[in-house]
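Action item from last week, closing it out:
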Amino acid sequence: MQNKAEPCITCIQTNLEDQLQTWVAGSVQKLLDDGVRPQDILIVTATKTAAMSLVTQHPAFEPLVRTFHELALSILSYGSVAQKLGRKPRVLLPQEEKVLLEDMKVSGLKVGRLREMLKFFFKGISESQNEDPAWLINNEERSLYAFLIDHLKECEAILPYERGNLACAALKSNDVREVFAKPYVFVCGYTSLDMCGQKAVASLATRELFALGYPSDAGVLSISFPHADGLQELVHAGARLMVLDAAPTNAGGVAKRLARACTEHEPMERSKTKESWLAKNAAAMQEQAPQHIAIYTTPQKEFEGTARAVAQVLKTCEPRPSILIAVPNRAYMQGIVGALNALDIKSSINLQLPFVKGDPRKNDANAQNRFLTLLGLLANPEDTMLWRSWLGYGDWLLRSDAWEILRRIAGEQKVSMLEAIGLVRKLMDPASGIEPGPEAAGVLKFAASLREIDGYLFECAGLSGEALVKIISHLTEWQPTSQVLALLSSTDGSAAAMYETVCKSIIDPALRCGDITVAAYDDCRDMCATHLFITGMVDGYLPVYAACDDNETHDKRRKYQQEERKRLLRLVTCASRDIYISAFAETDIEVAERSKVDIGRVFMRKHERLATAKPSSFMWECEEGFDCVTPSHS
């Protein structure tokens, strides 16, 4: 039973991911040593990566750890909650949100205004403002919001922004809260959750709540509208605050230095003397032993230099270190993996799943979405959102006008959307003798797509595993990447298991940091490693081009600089021991323009058009925390 007394709340604030996880592990172990039962402890993480990182270091904690996504869905799946919700706890995928946006365009609003209003709705939902009757103040807002909720109910799905909101509402019931409540609750990444998510997990603690977060939190990709002020609000309400500031020499020095840079001061001016000195001596630096800061002549030289530095770390460090290599883009990722392979060093690579991208409106850009949707329909032919997605593929407005007609027909005849699709099949059949009325004729836009998918489902019936993947690939004309194939092969081979695994990877992406992991800057979030390599640190990559663009206003550049400093700060907190930073001095002009590098000057060499790159303006702010390179004069 839940205690009637309010739980004791402790806020733990830190800039270091490694320190945060170490504190959690030590505190949980102390509770267990004091006789607290494991089933009385719950550890909630903002992301799957954070959960995996914690479990990797402390396998015994695995039964105690749940991600916010998993916890929210388990609450929404609970009997009485699911019944009251009226929708399935099935979160829309990013490409399905694009389909929903097209359906919203039928409202008649201009696209810009529509996007603004939807963002306003989504943020309001994440902050439970929708519970206030006075939240929406005019008829245009009320009608569009009702239109949005109607679509979600018909497709039996929820938005990612609704997870915390709906879970928070469900936990207001004492009966529901008693099922999920625990005496001791640890929330890792509390500041990464949205406001409703914070309220939901906080309400689960009956004796003690430990909210762990960061003073400057940029949020995570899998959670929209993070509430970074959550810790301060708990402290103002009377919670105890602890600040973890102990840190290893290298990582701690840089973290403190960057934390100071994240204040509202003017951006630090770059030293032109140092910049020209580094660029001038870049050729001499690349042949030296690995240093903590290095500038190479070209990206290829940087790939090779990083690989040599990794080899040196593996050779000299005992016990075997964990290494995280942060890269700015896919080309860098592949280049560094190739350089590591050349030295016979094995690494794991994190590539974003392709299903997040693609335009469902274009036939030449939705093959990967068609692959996933067909797999989903084989897994669950009763999923309305999957049918909606398939029926719209290839049309510039995704046949939203026809879907709106179908919605009206379903409402008039009081049938589900799946049953309404059955009516379209009858209209398609000449033998039925049914003459469609003027309005019903509009839904025949779905005829070709229905014939196509019915044939595909028939061809795939009874198949599983590799055979099923092969036939779906042939029918949709899309070859899965090696990462997708590895994900699919990790299941039992059934369509349901494969589809569920891919969806979980899209909604709550995770990356296990093994001995050597190569990942994009933003994917390194919540990972811990002894050695961190930040590569490609030039203006345009880190910070992004908008922070350096002279065409932007001073205020906008300053805003981008502050955001990028936070991004770098969260990156350096992944390291528990050493951090290495590298950049390149020049590259092909086309590569520079395509990848948004801030170009210094353009020149020709041996009939090649080249451009110089500016080492990141943040590099000078990091310099005192590192051992700087010394140019060779040999």
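Closing note: The chain has four domains: 8-79+165-246, 91-162, 250-352+512-625, 355-507.
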